[in-house]
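Q: What would this chain look like folded?
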Amino acid sequence: MVIYLPGQSSKESVALDELTPREIVQQLDKHVIGQAEAKKAVAIALRNRIRRQKLDSEMAEEVMPKNILMMGPTGVGKTEVARRLAKLANSPFIKIEATKFTEVGYVGRDVDSMIRDLVEVAIDMLREEKLDQVAERAEVNAEERMLDILMPPLKEGEEGEESESIERTREKLRAQLRDGKLDDRMVEIDVRERNMPVEIVTNTGVEEMDINLRDMLPGLFGGKNRRRKIRVTEGLDYLISEEEQKLIDMDQITRQAIERVEQSGIIFLDEMDKIAGREGGRGPDVSREGVQRDILPIVEGTTVNTRYGMIRTDHILFVAAGAFHVSKPSDLIPELQGRFPIRVEMKALTTEDFFRILTEPKNALIKQYTALMDTEGIRLKFSNDAISEIAAVASQVNEDTENIGARRLHTIMERVLEEVSFEGPDLKKKTVNIDAAYVNERLAEISRDQDLSRYIL
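A: My prediction, written as structure tokens:
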């Protein structure tokens, strides 16, 4: 199986199964700064998936994914590493907080819901891929249907000069339609009415209800065609959407989505440290071990019933994460500990890391703010000493108050650029130089006053 990296042209495409673990790390480096150990672990996990696909079916069935447990403070890149890995592998991916679950018998989400959510993500992914493939054909079909509405085609047996004249007129209409000259003309189109949303709530949650009343009672909740008068441009959009739905095979999409979930799905279980605990707790803590025991069979490998069929979880990759400040991995039940053989400790970010985060990644904050202000003709110019000062303040505030990692940079950048963002459209001078003095002026009082920075930064 050959998978190409997303976001690249056909000439630049790189087959995923040709990437070595070192090259996978290099791809992750474009978006995540530091955390070399974590990148190395996930790169090996991804490469082992590719290796497994090349084994014979009997051996491949026996090779289980090596699940990963990431430990480290908030904001150091745990989620981003897993999310970028999933995007790189073109895999269905969801992030779930372990604290959202309750054990069986309590009101709340059950652990099986994470698999149902993952299947929905996979179906959306496959649908988007198929829609991209049929988009051009759907536009052609929709255009022909719109021309038939604007100028009905000849009936059978009508030929001769009249036929040629009508065909010439049709081609003129086609040219006008493509040029947008007919956008405001009103046409009548048969539009299918939307079904009334039906939701049944039980104490086990909406996701438990696999009964589709619309299938059982067709026509009861709408879904009939109704003739509407709309503008050509709106009608064309509707017809394109209708043609796209005709051209994609939802049964095929469902089958492929289930296979993709089972073979390459990734689930990121955050806040695992919050459910680390043993029997004997009271109140909210009483179900901690129960949640762990419910998660265990999903991670070990079981079959979960979804509205699209049965899903095997044997080869889904689970990446768990938590700060583990108070609790520790050994506080998890032993069976669950054993299902996360790869342990990675994420390091706290340094001032140098903050500087790199601001400048190096493709989606670096400096690049984002520069692009945003450029939309209004304002050119932001950051000096190196300004970026160094922002990084230093972020590091200092994290040290003095709560350490929230790289998320601190968002707050500080907003504070630094607050006036420019507000006054932007009215600025006469369209080039704004951000240097260390400017940063100090905006942050000096707050960074000096720890009580104030606790609430503002």
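The two ends are 48 Å apart (CA to CA).
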